[in-house]
Amino acid sequence: MTDIQKQLQEELAPMDWGTIIPHAKRDAVIVVDSSLDLLSVGLAIAKDEVNQVNHWISELLIHKPTEKELTDWNDDPEREFQTLIVQPYVLVQPG
């Protein structure tokens, strides 16, 4: 395991939506589809693997939260997400 993998693995944490809201307000949240491994996505972003990231974007496997998602989550601030911070982004995976 590389240092960056180890560092990212240590950053994986559950977080409720209420804690994530400030990051959403600064447009820094990226939603990761549950079919993907959150650590793998974070590693690809951290290593600037543009082709892989663009593929996930084109397949709608990673995206900025939609207005509907934001509304639903704001109505349930206790909702839990698995999160990974990859500066300047907060990757979230709905539980």
Please explain how this structure is put together:
The protein is of the alpha+beta class and 95 residues long. It has one domain (3-94). Helix content is 46%, strand content 24%. It has a five-stranded mixed sheet with strand order 1-4-5-2-3. Strand 4 (80-86) and strand 5 (89-94) form a beta hairpin. Helix 1 packs across helix 3 (38-46). The model has no long low-confidence stretch (mean pLDDT 96).
| Count of distinct structural domains | 1
Distance from N terminus to C terminus (CA atoms, Å) equals 26 Å
Radius of gyration: 13 Å
**What's the number of extended β-strand segments?**
5
- Which parts are unreliable, with pLDDT below 50 for 5 consecutive residues or more? none
Q: Specify the biggest β-sheet.
A: 5 strands, mixed
Number of helices: 5
Calculate the mean pLDDT score and round it: 96
Structural class: alpha+beta
Query: Which percent range fits the helix content?
Result: 40-55%
Question: Strand content of the residues, in percent?
Answer: 15-25%
Sheet with most strands: strand arrangement = 1-4-5-2-3
Characterize this entry briefly.
This is Ssr3000 protein. It holds the Pfam family DUF2288. With 95 residues, the chain is an alpha+beta fold.
Features:
5 strands; 5-stranded mixed β-sheet; alpha+beta; about 45% helix; 5 helices; single chain; about 100 residues; globular
